[in-house]
Specification:
581 residues; alpha+beta; Rhopdopsin 7-helix transmembrane proteins; Beta-Lactamase; Alpha-Beta Plaits; five-stranded antiparallel beta sheet; five-stranded mixed beta sheet; 14 strands
Length: 581
């Protein structure tokens, strides 16, 4: 039995058993000595110890169910009541209370069995209810104990106090069933000993009480040595339970202290983390445009910089869909790709053009971070943006300088080459023809020589305006250099003859448009400004292309050849490259 106890409890239990054995050995050597005072002391001590155990069970929050804990407390309280009653009737009352002494003489022998049966019966009943997971009300448990205790008193009063068994000698008939009852309690506690150390303690207590009841079996007098052995055993049993409960209280206190320390450390770590998050949030709010949207795109948070840059008040943003900022600069496919990524819990990086409340456009470098819910699906999106409008404007300016003519703002030779490559690819897919028109102005050099380059530049600017107005929106008019211009016509027709006719119509429209008089402003040597009319025409060379039959440079060269043919015919003439006519 002792092996079921934890290592830290075995030595204490062994010491108690050894001390009890030594005490029994001492009592054995006392002969027929009477121990009235010791008997009273032991009965009173046992009653008080049992009552304290009941209070312990009521106060301590053991990790067992509240109902079972209350049943145990009630059982020990009942045992304390019967123990104290047994002690009271054992006192030799004198004086005005001598009537108690007279009245209790017949009751005294009947008080011992109930004081020993009440506790094991209460424990056995409580564990039986626990095993059945019964919801028996506490008041019914108390009522049952009162009824059973009364029955114990009645039965023990009616039964003979002693009987001679012959071989085993004189014995108390009430002690035999008590031993079986304690064995039942020990068996019940043994099954659940691993649930809580308290049940291990009850096993040790039951073992000590069985030993004490064995000695009581041979007690033939209320104050002789066997009775003292029995009462001493009960005292050690109660002391053992006090030791178990105090150790549990100490362990609980230590665990609570360790938990408090751990909680204090966690609280400090949490506070540190909160401070870090707060600082990071502050730093991010000072640097970035921060917004939070739900999965439907509804804005739920906007920081101060968000409001400053967008021009909206916070109340005008919260609750609105993020489309309120849509600039129209991006295609639907752009946003579809973005939403597809963040819906899969992926972080998205990119550059977006948004529109302010006043209609102005601004560019932001954007990072969108999805946050998941408990099911792993996005619950909200946090976007962090940096205003890059100045950078984008600078890039656009540099791009304009690299791809557009500084004077006429028309695409330059580089951009024309890129668009010609794109047109070749497009015509390859659509099987349509394209055309390239190479233009050279007539009589441009005399104008420059007579009035200077500023006047010539004014003419070139006006030619650029007329070219853009004369071609379709899908076509490209570019300045090739000097007084040379190129017009790219894409997606004409799948039929060659139809494409030639369409190209001829556009070329004729350009020729007539450019041949109309120009009103030029010139500055005299004295600083005055004069207006004069200037007539300028253009020779136009046209070539068709389809697919990748010719490279871009070859197409330009063919149009250039056709333009020189037009100059031989002209001025103010249009010629097609001979291979395509």
């Amino acid at each position: 039995m002792i092996t079921c106890l934890k290592n830290q409890n075995r030595s204490v239990f062994g010491l108690m058993v050894l001390t009890y054995a030594l005490l029994v050995w001492v009592f054995f050597g006392q002969g027929d000595t009477k121990f009235e005072s010791l008997h009273l002391l032991l009965d009173t001590s046992n009653g008080l110890l049992s009552l304290l155990l009941a209070f312990f069970f009521m106060a301590e929050q053991h990790s067992i169910t509240k109902r079972v804990r209350l049943f145990l407390a009630i059982g020990f309280a009942t045992a304390a009541f019967t123990e104290i009653l047994h002690a009271l009737v054992g006192i030799e009352w004198t004086g005005s209370l001598s009537w108690i002494e007279t009245s209790s003489k017949s009751l005294r022998p009947a008080t011992w069995p109930p004081s020993t049966y009440a506790l094991p019966f209460a424990l056995a009943w409580a564990f039986w209810l626990k095993r059945r997971q019964s919801e028996l009300p506490v008041r019914w448990f108390i009522s049952g104990l009162i009824v059973v205790t009364a029955i114990f008193y009645t039965v023990s009063y009616l039964l003979p106090k002693y009987f001679d068994t012959g071989i085993l000698g004189i014995q108390r008939p009430t002690q035999g069933p008590l031993l079986l009852l304690w064995l039942l309690v020990i068996r019940q506690c043994w099954k659940i000993r691993h649930e809580h150390p308290l049940f291990e303690g009850l096993i040790g207590m039951g073992a000590l009480l069985i030993a004490s009841d064995l000695f009581m079996l041979y007690s033939t007098s209320p104050h002789e040595k066997f009775t003292m052995m029995a009462h001493s055993g009960k005292l050690f049993a109660y002391l053992w339970m006090h030791f178990i409960l105090m150790r549990l209280a100490a362990e609980d206190n230590r665990a609570r202290h360790e938990a408090e320390q751990a909680l204090s450390v966690k609280a400090l770590q949490l506070q540190t983390s909160l401070d870090e998050v707060k600082n990071l949030h502050f730093a991010m709010d000072q640097h970035s445009i921060v917004g939070i949207t739900d999965v439907k795109g509804t804005i739920t948070y906007a920081n101060d910089i968000f409001c400053q840059v967008s021009g909206y008040l916070r109340g005008e943003l919260i609750g609105q869909n993020h489309r309120i900022l849509n600039s129209g600069k991006h295609s639907p496919e752009f946003f579809q790709d973005m939403y597809k990524n963040i819906a899969k819990n992926r972080v998205w990086h990119g550059e977006i053009c948004n529109r302010k409340k006043n209609g102005e456009l601004y560019w932001v470098k954007t990072t969108i971070v999805p946050f998941q819910n408990s099911t792993g699906k996005p619950r909200e999106y946090i976007s962090m943006r940096t205003d890059i409008t100045e950078r984008k404007l600078a890039e656009e300016k540099l791009l304009g300088m690299a791809l557009y003519d500084n004077l006429t703002k028309l695409p330059n030779r580089r951009l024309l080459h890129e668009r010609l490559e794109q047109a070749i690819e497009s015509d390859l897919r659509s099987q349509r023809y394209g055309a390239l028109l190479f233009l050279d102005l007539d009589h441009f050099k005399p104008l420059n020589d007579m009035h200077g380059h500023p006047v010539g530049d004014s003419l070139l600017e006006e030619v650029a305006v007329r070219l853009k107005n004369a071609v379709r929106a899908m076509d490209t008019a570019a300045r090739f250099g000097g007084d040379e211009f190129v017009v790219l016509l894409g997606e004409l027709d799948t039929d060659k003859e139809e494409s030639i006719q369409l190209a001829a119509v556009i070329a004729e429209k350009i020729r007539t448009t450019l041949a109309e008089p120009y009103l030029i402003e010139a500055r005299n040597s004295d600083g005055t400004v004069k207006l004069f009319e200037h007539h300028c025409s253009a020779c136009i060379g046209v070539t068709l292309f389809q697919g990748k039959q010719y490279a871009a440079d070859e197409i330009v060269q063919m149009a250039d050849v056709a333009m020189y043919q037009a100059k031989e015919v002209g001025p103010n003439a249009v010629c097609f490259y001979t291979d395509f006519v």
